[in-house]
Task: inverse folding
């Protein structure tokens, strides 16, 4: 993949989390990525640094009110180039990671009721 020199298992883990957040229209901070990947801070942040250097992600610092009693978080999201590159890489290396999960809604319930002979 262009721009990304080193592709490790932790990098793939981080990309999975970032791609999931991208699909859901969210930015995600480093601690949440660590929690979801079950990887250590240095491991996750090294992967994030490589992805940012390659132009696949952008990190933005959150704005905090002066009375906030915690440090600022840095939120990450895939770039326009990074999202398709991440999908392609994961499709190649981890095909099951990019399969979309079915959305839950009323249609499946309606079909289930129809099967039972109930109302639609």
Result:
């Amino acid at each position: 993949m262009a721009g990304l020199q080193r592709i490790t298992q932790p990098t793939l883990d981080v990309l999975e989390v970032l791609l999931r957040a991208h699909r859901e229209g969210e930015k995600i901070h480093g601690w949440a990525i660590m929690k979801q990947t079950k990887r250590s801070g240095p491991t996750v942040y090294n992967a994030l640094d490589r992805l940012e250097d390659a132009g696949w992600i952008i990190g933005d610092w959150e704005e905090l009110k002066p009375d906030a009693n915690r440090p600022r978080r840095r939120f990450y999201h895939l770039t326009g180039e990074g999202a398709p590159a991440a999908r392609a890489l994961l499709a190649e290396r981890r095909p099951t990671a990019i399969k979309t999960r079915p959305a839950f809604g009323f249609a499946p319930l309606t079909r289930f009721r129809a099967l039972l002979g109930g109302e639609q």
The chain has a mean pLDDT of 85. The longest strand covers residues 57-61.
